[in-house]
Amino acid sequence: xxxxxxxxxxxxxxxxxxxxxxxxxxxxxFGSFSGKSLIIxxxxxxxxxxxxxxxxxxxxxxxxxxxxxxxxxxxxGSYAQFQKQFLASLDCPxxxxxxxxxxxxxxxxxxxxxxxxxxxxxxxxxxRARGGGAESTGEWERVYREALSxxxxxxxxxxxxxTFQELGYxxxxxxxxxxxxxxxxxxxxxxxxxxxxxxxxxxxxPKQEKRLALKKVLDKHLPEFEVRIGGTTSIDVTRKxxxxxxxxxxxEKHLGISKKEMLFVGDALFPGGNDYPVKEAGVQCISVQxxxxxxxxxxxxx
Length: 302
What we know:
Blueprint: H1 7-21, H2 24-27, E1 38-41, H3 56-68, E2 70-74, H4 79-85, E3 100-103, H5 104-107, E4 109-113, H6 125-129, E5 140-145, H7 150-167, E6 180-182, E7 187-190, H8 198-204, H9 209-221, E8 225-230, E9 234-239, H10 244-255, E10 262-266, H11 276-280, E11 284-287, H12 291-301
Parallel strand pairs: 1-2, 1-10, 2-3, 10-11
Antiparallel strand pairs: 3-4, 4-5, 6-7, 7-9, 8-9
Helix pairs in contact: 1-9, 3-12, 7-9
């Protein structure tokens, strides 16, 4: 576990983060959405529970939103996770998928839908997107990918081991799947493992105190990388400057949409959270406290 010496400080920081998550960004829920042509969503804790599929109501709401506006999803999950968690649950006409843009692993890669050759009867986004793996993208075309080198990956993994040792941190007695995952463009630490049950994940670090302590030491060991808190138990590490704000720049570059036309919806808009760079980039943001909160935002947009 994290050493107790900094527990009071981390507790205070964690409480402040919770207050900020429930603070001014949420006031935007009642503000104006006029002029917003692109709505950007986080995935885990926003469109769907952590590592769980979207429900049918969310799928229906997104299909309706795609009729009116462009939609992007920026998440710390890999493209394979997008396929499993998001695309497989999304039921919408193929003709609307040209309005959908995917940015896995904190926007270190970008996928857009190929419209050519789409049959008149095609409907389910998920059925076409499943394929045989992250490289088998079906009708989804990868625009770019910022892959980490083997040397960079090794340095990040060593930094995690040093951090664990310095803080006296040990993994929980029971974990589910990979704890340190190589997502090619990002290294992700998931304290309970990638496949942990959601109730256990929600109980592990609800105020981010444990991850704040880990992040503080990781920042010291990895000054040339971005270290961000994501999901319910995760820490994401990417190259310096490659975070969700990088995705905003790529949207401006590839889609020609300005920041003032964007609206971001996410659950980690606190300092150190992996959504926070979007706020720092100057995009209007709305902080939500889960899937049901997000549905309220979409219904207002409709």
